[in-house]
């Protein structure tokens, strides 16, 4: 594998080619199948991953067995790098949502690289800051916002991503099954389906299987800001 794929990962942005080659030298290429558990909560953190293709969900399980998806990671991002500094254990579960190609980077070798590379240290700080902001947002949404507000924000985020890629931002394709999406949004499938149906009845969206057509962006933004449906 060339270092060009590593260059796409934000964690390695700004690194010189020789430093990228050092990262590649300590990394192992792994092919993993859908639903193959990569690591479990509480397991010793011996390394982290960079996604080259596919998607991975990071989630926790409550004592009652309820799953809460924390984040869905896709290429070219890294995940579990924060665990390298968290008492040596992974704080959540990681499971592929599809067949994935990953780079596994061992903890000991990577920390040695950090000690020798100031830019990599800065990138780690930025990466951990993004995680902090993401989870602060998740806590706010789950504790303060209605399900309709969470769904609206999720759809707007997908729409914004399409816009940045030069695609039509009005038609978004769900990147999770409805069961997985409900888990991510802190609700259940039935409530998710009912809420989508209400939004459709109000003329805000149209639903076609796993695709959502945004009909009224202004109304969707109002829902996202906390207005009740």
Keywords:
229 residues; alpha+beta; Jelly Rolls; Arc Repressor Mutant, subunit A; 2 domains; 4-stranded antiparallel β-sheet; 3-stranded antiparallel β-sheet; 10 strands; globular
How would you characterize the overall build of this protein?
By secondary structure, the chain is α+β, with helices and mostly antiparallel strands. It has two domains: 4-142, Jelly Rolls (Sandwich), CATH 2.60.120.10; 145-224, Arc Repressor Mutant, subunit A. Helix content is 42%, strand content 22%. It is built from eight helices and ten strands. The strands form three sheets. The chain has a four-stranded antiparallel sheet with strand order 1-7-2-5. The chain starts with a helix and ends in a 5-residue tail after the last helix. The mean pLDDT is 87.
Chart the SSEs and their pairings.
Elements (H helix, E strand, L loop, with lengths): L3 H4 L9 H10 L1 E5 L14 E7 L1 E7 L5 E8 L3 E2 L13 E4 L3 E7 H10 L1 H27 L2 H18 L6 E3 L4 H7 L4 H13 L3 E4 L2 E4 L2 H8 L5
Antiparallel strand pairs: 1-7, 2-5, 2-7, 3-4, 3-6, 8-10, 9-10
- Provide the number of structural domains: 2
Which value, in Å, is the CA radius of gyration? 19 Å
| CATH architecture grouping of the largest domain | Sandwich
Number of helices: 8
Q: What is the CATH fold-level name of the largest domain?
A: Jelly Rolls
Low-confidence stretches: none
What is the number of beta strands?
A: 10
The main sheet comes to:
4 strands, antiparallel
Instruction: Please report the distance between the alpha carbons of the first and last residues.
Output: 49 Å
Mean pLDDT, to the nearest integer, reads 87
Proportion of residues in extended strands: 15-25%
How would you classify the helix and strand content by structural class?
alpha+beta
Could you say which overall geometry the principal axes of the C-alpha atoms support? globular
Please give the CATH class of the largest domain: Mainly Beta
* Helical content (DSSP H or I, runs of 4+): 40-55%
| Order of helix and strand elements from N to C terminus | HHEEEEEEEHHHEHHEEH
User: What topology, given as strand order, has the largest sheet?
Assistant: 1-7-2-5
CATH superfamily of the largest domain: Jelly Rolls
